[in-house]
Amino acid sequence: MLPLLALGPVLAGCTVTDAAYPSLLPRPIESVSDAEPVRPDPVVAPDATLDSRIAAHRADADAAAEAFRSQAITAEAKVAVARGVAAGSESWIAAQSALADLGATRARTVEIVTALEEIAIARAQAGEPSYPALDAAIAEIGKRASDQAARVAALDTALAG
Question: Which of 33, 108, 137, 156 has the most CB atoms around its CB within 10 Å?
Answer without folding.
Answer: 137
